[in-house]
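Hey team,

Filing this mostly as a record. A colleague (T.K.) asked me to run one chain through the structure pipeline before their review meeting, and I want the input and output archived in the tracker in case anyone asks later how it was produced. No errors, nothing strange. Just documentation.

Input sequence:
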Amino acid sequence: MAPTTLATAPLATTPPPAAAPTVDLLSEPTFEECIEEWNRYHDDVAAGRLNGANVPVNNYFAYHGGRIIDYDPDF
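Output structure:
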């Protein structure tokens, strides 16, 4: 017996997952979010949790969420 719907039919596609965040990735962080990250950074430095051993000399790094995300020689 032949299938009743083709795999390329519009109804056969799966919808995107409902748990996907609806956050605008290009939006600017709020002042409060910036202060929270600034405080977390300084707490990590004071406690010795920030390890910049993998960042080359004379490079700037991007820190977010308690870890170094990336680094680059250009500010």
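Quick notes for T.K.: The beta strands are 60-64, 67-72. The two ends are 64 Å apart (CA to CA).
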